[in-house]
TrEMBL record:
Coiled-coil annotated residue ranges, if any: none
Any one GO biological process: alanyl-tRNA aminoacylation
Organism: Alkalispirochaeta sphaeroplastigenens
Primary location: cytoplasm
Protein name: Alanine--tRNA ligase
Catalysed reaction equations from the record: tRNA(Ala) + L-alanine + ATP = L-alanyl-tRNA(Ala) + AMP + diphosphate
Length: 423
């Protein structure tokens, strides 16, 4: 298949042999900033159809992306401007043994050797081909139409025109796709004229006209598509469902496809095995051990809360008469104790107390003024908090917050200011 632009043509090598990794091409155009190249032929697929553009190298110069411009030209985007001449540090050979002497000029007509970033290309061929299998299986098994697709760096998502999908149905779709992978079915691409489309029923109608490129996995899926795919389904290895969510009244399904699925399985297996070893159990017993641990933790937290509340009652009960304004200073105590002390202090209508818990460079504070006394909100803000830059607030009978730069002197200044409200 050839593509014409400006009276010239760029040969789409990526359609002819999707597994090819290197090629030679002639420079046809160089942009003014020498950051974009147009070649007479290329293996670099330009981004489109949800598939990102290829990257790699041209004569060793890094290509960070490939895309089409508004005229349809395939642009190879370089990481840095192409030099006028071959740099001296470059070796006097290329992967295909074509000499490239240092000092040789680089201009239109120069032949370059291109090499794909193969891991990147192969990954997205797996994503694109796997998406075809999944969309085909979703249509056949669940009568779900694919509305949109996103091939991300970690997962591929497929949005369908249903709001829900039973777990058993989704598992049947996954099983069917992995069965088709094991069959190693051929993935065929061919072009037809739009007038011939009636002889090729498509899973999804197309609005394209003229010559249309079709991708077919016999008995599984057939759709108009301009992406780059694997030649056989067996190269997918594995597909697994990893999540789902409802968005815009449609269901979005998330998948790990190909090598991503294998890596995810390996990582999950490693973490599950490690977690089971920490709990001294078999991996299959891990959910039960976690549930038992959660129940035990809840019981311990409940017991700790009751003991903290009892300690707070004891501390406040051992103090002087609650009618006397007082201070209570703590050092590096749990935040739960300060909270319990404040809540216990609120139960006595006569109480007027400032509680401060110094932890490192700051201190947490709580102020309680019982209902038997007017709550001096404005005075607290103006005389106690503002001079020291203390942050916080609340409503009667409790205010609380934080005191930055909580040196003993600053804490003493704060508590003295509070006690001075009742001379």
């Amino acid at each position: 298949m050839r593509f014409w632009y400006s009276g010239e043509m760029t040969e789409h090598l990526f359609y002819q042999d999707p597994l090819a990794r290197t090629f030679q091409a002639e420079i046809r155009e160089i942009s003014r900033d020498r950051r974009e190249l147009v070649l007479d032929r290329t293996l670099f697929y330009p981004e489109g159809g949800g598939q990102p553009g290829d990257r790699g190298t041209l004569q060793g110069f890094a290509v960070t992306n490939t895309r089409k411009d508004h005229d349809g030209k395939i642009l190879h985007i370089l990481e840095s401007p192409l030099p006028e001449y071959m740099p001296e540090h470059r070796p006097d050979y290329t992967p295909d043994d074509t000499p490239r002497r240092t000092g040789e000029s680089i201009s239109e007509g120069t032949i370059l050797t291109g090499e794909l970033d193969w891991d990147h290309r192969f990954d997205y061929m797996q994503q694109h081909t796997g998406q075809h299998l999944l969309s085909g299986a979703l249509f056949r098994i669940a009568r779900a139409n694919t509305v949109s697709v996103h091939q991300g760096a970690e997962i591929t998502t497929i949005e369908i025109d249903l709001q829900t999908l039973p777990r058993e149905t989704l598992e049947a779709v996954e099983d069917e796709v992995n069965h088709q992978i094991r069959l190693d079915a051929p993935v065929r691409t061919f072009t037809v004229d739009q007038r011939e489309l009636e002889h090729y029923p498509l899973r999804r109608p197309t609005s394209r006209t003229g010559t249309i490129r079709l991708v077919e996995i016999e008995g599984i899926d057939r759709v108009a598509c301009g992406g780059v795919h694997l030649p056989r389904t067996g190269l997918l290895n594995l597909v697994q469902t990893v999540g789902h969510e409802t968005i815009r009244n449609r269901l979005r399904l998330s998948f790990k496809i190909g090598n991503r699925a294998l890596r995810d399985y390996r990582e999950r297996h490693r973490e599950i095995t490690r977690s089971a070893a920490l709990l001294s159990c078999h991996p299959r017993d891990l959910p039960h051990r976690i549930e038992a641990g959660q129940r035990e933790l809840q019981d311990l937290r409940r017991e700790l809360r009751l003991r903290t509340e009892a300690l707070a009652r004891h501390i406040l009960g051992a103090a002087d008469s609650p009618e006397t304004p007082r201070e209570l200073l703590l050092e590096k105590e749990p935040e739960e104790l300060l909270k319990a002390l404040a809540e216990e202090a609120c139960t006595d209508r006569r109480r007027r107390i400032i509680l401060v818990n110094r932890c490192g460079g700051e201190a947490l504070w709580a102020i309680v003024v019982g209902e038997d006394h007017p709550f001096p909100q404005e005075e607290l803000r103006r005389k106690v908090l503002a001079p020291l830059g203390a942050k916080g607030g609340g409503k009667a009978p409790l205010w609380r917050g934080v005191l930055p730069e909580a040196s003993p002197e600053r804490i003493r200044t704060m508590t003295r200011a509070f006690l001075d409200l009742w001379p």
